[in-house]
């Protein structure tokens, strides 16, 4: 029996899985009542659109229900040759839903615009390496034609991309993207719960969905807990304040890859996996060749020494091993990022989070996150800051550093002076 993944690894505090009759195609023909504004997002920490926005965007992004077939990838599919919808309400989208001469089948103009934007612009912004652009533009979109939650996730990311570049229509595109992703997450949960054993194609599709969800979560409008902070761990409890939600999504993707194993290289996800592995191996080899006893002194040596002297850490060998592994991997990413001859890629920062998602991340949850773990994570903010050219990552380095500074006590704040200087952040009241 293969390992079973819990959807809670991918989405925290999700809504209960909807019934089969509520599977919503990308474009359908039968009107459906608008979702209440108070409905929780299937992925914790992601915003929920207002009632009025849902009424507008739901008609545009997904106007009704239809039964689905199951493809070999485990994804729901829908028949695009359905009868035309009898009526469509007014929409803020220019031209609304276009009908052909003589009352032909309507065209879902919003979805078409989002797909066009993704395949002409958005796909180049997800990774710096051009070798992966074809993967996002061709392979993932092709998969989306047979997998409804992949297509909706693609369109949701594209909607937030348009919201970023069109501030005059930001609310409309943001709310449309939220609605699309909510439906994608519900469909993904049904796919995960469908079988006792997950085949490699379904696992690969869910892995790609988790990656798209990370982009979506990072690009979504940031919200705060009632206590005014942005480090959130659970939508159901304001006391679980250890880590931003998008970081937990990395853990969900890693859980899926643990199930896939080597079989992932024989799926649609293979180009992404090959690229990430090749970069990690090249960086590791470079560090092994160039590393000298004092080469990384200005970076992580002071932090290593402080952690090694901490009584709470020295008394727990497992904890010391967790911190040492996190520092080793972070050191690799930081050293490579400071080499001007090595092209930077935001994926390098995500790889570190991937590596520590099941060891360091749990220490950042709860009402009292481990001080040493928070200090290590604060150094990760340097990588986030370096990759702010990506529209979906802008502001996150400083955003997380602010919260880390709030969580740390006076003693441990002195541990993060180096990343604060690297980011040009001067502490409380000194940020942008």
UniProtKB/TrEMBL annotation:
Name the UniProt record assigns to this protein: Uncharacterized protein
Species in which this protein is naturally found: Achaetomium macrosporum
Source lineage: Eukaryota, Fungi, Dikarya, Ascomycota, Pezizomycotina
Location of region: Disordered: 1-106
Molecular function as annotated in GO: DNA-binding transcription factor activity, RNA polymerase II-specific
Keywords linked to the UniProt accession: Nucleus
Record-linked PANTHER family: STEROL REGULATORY ELEMENT-BINDING PROTEIN ECM22 (PTHR47657:SF7)
KW Nucleus (keyword) present: yes
Low complexity composition-biased segments: 11-22, 76-85
